[in-house]
Design a protein that fits this description.
Chain A is of the alpha/beta class and 320 residues long. Helices cover 41% and strands 23% of the residues of chain A. The chains are: A alpha/beta (320), B mainly alpha (217).
Chain lengths: 320, 217
């Protein structure tokens, strides 16, 4: 668990604080997406959690441990840190980059080698193909994957991600997001995820923390934020199409009616797809329902009726 | 042709001068690299020293070499010969070496350093695992300029008793013997090129292939 209590940061030489009295809790196993315009203080918050920036006042805890009482280098080795692609060390090979923190912690070489192979495979890379390469020889997507692998190297319970998928094209970004969410399902890390993209925040965050001008404006689940925006700033940030967005952030598995395993007939979607995707399949093929599969296994059914009811309910919540 | 004849006729003396020249420069380079590398690293970490140290390097570099050799010669502990020569040349090497070490470290992308910091590298580890390895290309540019420069200036040390290739040039001038001057100049160039190549090999060993690409860009 990550906890911030009344944290304020004023940078030297600056009149106004970058972060003003922010209190925030990220529960274990949850992703908290920090979102807001540039200069809103979201990155500063992230960097206070691993003490790259020291708070001016307030306290920060990781699993009830006051981080100001921990040696910063030791603290950082226990926190996965993913930043844009520049974060890879250009003079080190992929293998050496991933092995960075295990080496700092003096793992035996055999174990490091195994771990590197395991991680590269987990993030979807061909170990033999990339391990000896240098960052300049990689594509943007590969760099981001290696950034994630490096952060996961010593299996830290807490991860900080600063626009980790920011520097790749939209298609690759979507794929990386999906892959990461899939990993997170098994890893259950406690994650702070900074982004300026509200759609990314909606997709990645179990909770979303919206920042503006150093203040925490609203903190809640994506659904809460869509249903009850705290003020006009949040409304603007969320955009006009709140109803469709709601569908985009609910997974098919959450709405579907469970069904005995059988063979997939007709149109099907994956359990982890968004309800919006299921709606699109229905519209495209002019059908009233789709089969829901997990990999190849049929696990349920999602009907047009269910979707309609869900949107209506959420809409009336938003209205009230 | 006559230059070649001259070299063959005086082979043993020329060999002695060449060996002396080579060892003098090599001694100076080894001492300078250790000393000025450390100073360069130091001022990159203690910024307030940087201005003064780099200024001192510039001033030393501007003193005519012949006067510096002469000055050290008059100090009893140094006297004629190698000690004065080494000291003076090491001081000449200060400017290009310290400056390039300092610049090299300072030119490392701060975002990469910060990424390392975020991974939990201590400030000492940041220096050795990120800043210095990434600064090698710039540092070696300085080293290779220095080695050629020092080989040239070392000829002047002949005036304070060094029996090196400068002596061929000096005696050639006093005797108006162009073959002698040419022989001296040619061999000095060859020594400089050899040392430069030696440093090139070291550079190849130390600079990561991941950075060589960036240099070409």
């Amino acid at each position: 668990m990550i906890e911030l209590q009344e944290v304020t940061k004023t940078f030297p030489g600056s009149g106004t604080p970058a972060v003003k009295g922010v209190s925030l809790q990220v529960k274990s196993g949850e992703i908290c997406a920090l979102v807001g315009p540039s200069g809103c203080g979201k990155t500063t918050i992230l960097r206070m959690i691993n003490r790259l920036v020291e708070p001016s006042s307030g306290s920060l805890f990781i699993d009830d441990q006051d981080i100001m009482k921990v040696n910063p280098d030791h603290l950082r080795r226990g926190i996965g840190y993913v930043i844009q692609q520049i974060g890879l060390l250009p003079h080190r090979t992929v293998e050496e980059n991933v092995a960075l923190v295990p080496r700092l912690l003096k793992w035996p070489e055999g174990r490091i080698k195994e771990r590197v192979e395991e991680l590269l495979e987990k993030v979807g890379l061909d170990t033999d193909e990339v391990r000896k390469k240098y960052p300049y020889q990689l594509s943007g997507g590969q760099m981001q994957r290696i950034g994630v692998a490096r952060a996961l190297a010593v299996d830290p319970p807490v991860m900080l991600m600063d626009e980790p998928f920011g520097a790749v094209d939209p298609i690759v970004r979507l794929r990386l997001q999906d892959e990461f969410l899939k990993l997170q399902q098994s890893f259950k890390k406690t994650i702070c995820f900074v982004t300026h993209d509200m759609n990314e925040a909606m997709k990645m965050g179990d909770k979303i923390a919206i920042m503006n001008g150093g203040f925490l404006v609203q903190h809640g689940t994506p659904r809460e934020i869509l249903a009850q925006p705290a003020n006009s700033f949040v409304e603007d940030l969320v955009g006009e199409d709140r109803g469709v967005k709601l569908l985009d952030l609910v997974r098919v598995e959450a709405l579907m009616l469970p069904r005995e395993a059988g063979t997939a007939n007709g149109r099907s979607v994956q359990a982890l797809d968004s309800a919006k995707k299921a709606l699109e399949v229905m519209l495209e093929h002019n059908v009233d329902g789709v089969t829901v599969c997990r990999e190849k296994q049929v696990v349920g059914i999602l009907t047009w009726e269910t979707i309609k009811t869900y949107v209506h309910q959420a809409g009336s919540e938003a209205g009230g | 042709m006559s230059v070649l004849l001259f070299m063959i006729n005086y082979f043993h003396r020329i060999l002695e001068y060449t060996v002396n020249h080579f060892t003098l420069v090599l001694t100076v380079m080894i001492l300078s690299m250790v000393l000025w590398f450390s100073v360069g690293v130091l001022i990159s970490r203690y910024e307030m020293l940087a201005g003064a140290v780099l200024g001192l390097g510039n001033i030393l570099f501007c003193i005519p070499s012949i006067s510096l050799f002469g000055l050290f010669m008059t100090i009893p502990q140094l006297g004629l010969g190698r000690r004065s020569a080494v000291l003076a040349l090491v001081l000449y090497a200060m400017m290009p070496l310290v400056r390039n070490v300092y610049r090299g470290i300072k030119s490392v992308d701060p975002r990469v350093v910060e990424a390392g910091q975020g991974m939990g590298l201590s400030s000492w580890q940041l220096l050795w695992q990120i800043q210095v390895p990434m600064a090698w290309p710039v540092i070696f540019a300085g080293i290779r300029i220095t080695v050629v420069m020092i080989t040239g200036i070392a000829t002047v040390a002949t005036f304070i008793g060094e029996r090196n290739l400068g002596r061929l040039i000096h005696h050639g001038i006093t005797r108006s013997n162009s073959d002698m001057i040419l022989a001296g100049a040619l061999i000095v160039s060859v020594v400089a090129l050899c040392l430069d190549m030696l440093m090139g090999l070291l550079e190849k060993k130390l600079v990561s292939p991941g950075l060589r690409y960036q240099q070409r860009e």
